[in-house]
Structure formats: structure tokens, C-alpha cells
Amino acid sequence: MEKTLKYKRVLIKLSGEALAGAQGFGIDPLQAEALAVTIGEVRSLEIDVALVIGAGNLWRGRSGIQRGMDRATADYMGMLATVMNAMALMDAMERSGLVVRVQSALQMQAVAEPYIRRRAIRHLEKGRVVIFGGGTGNPYFSTDTAAALRAMEIGADVLIKATKVDGVYDADPIKHPDATRFEHLTYIETINRRLQVMDSTAISLCMDNNLPILVLNLWEEGTLVNAMYGEKVGTLVTA
Q1: Which residue(s) pair with 11 in the sheet?
Q2: Given Cys at both, which of 83, 89, 129, 205 links 148, Cβ 3.0 to 4.6 Å?
Q3: 86 has a pLDDT exceeding 80
Q4: Is residue 218 part of a domain?
Q5: Would you say residue 236 lies in a domain?
Q6: Beta-bridge partners for 131
Q7: pLDDT tens-digit map of 155-212
Q8: How many other CB atoms are found less than 10 A from the CB of residue 81?
Q9: Domain holding 86: CATH number?
Q10: Considering the domain boundaries, does residue 206 fall inside one?
């Protein structure tokens, strides 16, 4: 019996560390290539794919703020770093045969298109992968919130939070081996229990617009593709 796809359009939120490799910082071209292969597997199913990537591998605004840096300045530096990550990922994906466009919320015409919602949707309709850089273009908002916002703007069926763990736990599973994994959570439970799936602004945005969040292990072979068919992987956060 042929399996049926559950999703037609997805937005995948990646942390900057997904590009970092073993060192935990910087951009590892081999790691970018591995990501490109994984994204290509989803795209081969004729699913529209958009991406938002963080900047933790290049810049952590929190560290700057703790040392006295202005919050807005630190946030803008983070937004610039996300565009660097987007370009690195674009390069790896294009070398793997995918057609990719980077759109930035901060205008930098030499390296990325400006973010235009209707153009982004048109790219997706033409089978191109779209990477959204520059966060929301505003300080005080995280890339989690940018992912939730862009997912709704392009009409994504689900927001996928791609991590290194196989879902959401009631405690850090690395520090607490007996931690319990959740298969399903509501938005309110996630916020009230402070489970750090995404920040509260992003979760509230998804809750207000009924956008499901799926938290899964990006590096576990086949997990992302299985998720596209609606198989039970990771943790699903819904109303």
C-alpha cells in the first residue's frame, strides 16, 4: 500500500549549531553538505521546503549583552550571522543539485533577495528551496519567532524544529537519562511547563494561528522523511 504524504509545504527551523560540526562553532562545509542531502530527500518527495537558520555557531547575542553590549546591536549582529549561515547552506544545497533562493529581512542586495512574501511563495511553487535569513528584521525577536512568522506567511502545514534530540523531554535527557519524552503536547502545556521547545513568543504565535510544531532529531536517518508521511516521530505540539 502506497504511503500518503501528510504535508505539502513545510518550514524547517535549524539551529546555527547544525552547521558547526564537531567544534561547536563556525561553519563546517561537510556538515552543510550532510544537511543538504537531508533536505534534498524531503524535496524529492515534491514537498515545498523553506528554511530558517539560527546564528549560534557564529554569534551569541546573550554573551554580548552580559558584557554590556546594547541589546539591539547584539540582535542585529545575530541577524547578519544568519545570512552568512544561509549562504553557506545555499552553496552546499546548490552543489547537491537543489535550486535555492536566499531571502533576507535585512536588505543586502549583493548577496540575497529582499524578503517579499509573494515572491517567496512563487519560488516554492516553482520547486525552489527558500532560505529566510535576517530573522524578522527586528531586534528583540528570535529566529524561532522568525520561523513561526515565515511559516504562517507562506502557508506551511507544519513548523519543524530540527534538533539533536528525538523530541521534547521533561528534563535534559543528556543530564537526566530517566527523563520522559512527550509524544504530544499542547501549546499551553509547553509554555506553562517552560519546556524550551521554542521561545514563548514563537509558541504563542503558532497557538494563535493553529500552526502545528513538530520537534524531531534531524540527524537520525529517515526521521525527517518519515515525518512527512505523518509517522510518529518526535514530539508534536498542537492545540
Answers
A1: 50, 159
A2: 205
A3: yes
A4: yes
A5: no
A6: 51, 102
A7: 999 999 999 889 999 888 888 889 999 999 999 999 999 888 899 999 999 999 999 9
A8: 23
A9: 3.40.1160.10
A10: no
Record the pTM.
0.95
- The grid coordinates listed for 38 are 537531508
Average pLDDT on 71-79 reads 95
Question: Residue 177 falls within a domain, yes or no?
Answer: no
Interval 23-43: pLDDT, tens: 788 999 999 999 999 999 999
**DSSP for the chain, written as a single string:** -----S-SEEEEEE-GGGGTGGGSSS--HHHHHHHHHHHHHHHTTT-EEEEEE--TTT--HHHHHHTT--HHHHHHHHHHHHHHHHHHHHHHHHHTT--EEEEESS--TTTSEEP-HHHHHHHHHTT-EEEEESTTSSTT--HHHHHHHHHHHTT-SEEEEEESSSSEESS-TTT-TTPPEESEEEHHHHHHTT--SS-HHHHHHHHHTT--EEEEETTSTTHHHHHHTT---SEEEE-
Q: How many CB atoms lie within 10 A of CB 221?
A: 10
Could you give the CA distance from residue 29 to residue 53 in angstroms, rounded to a whole number? Answer: 15
Mean of the per-residue pLDDT values for the chain? 94
The structural domain count of the chain equals: 1
Q: Which domain holds residue 86?
A: 9-163+213-222
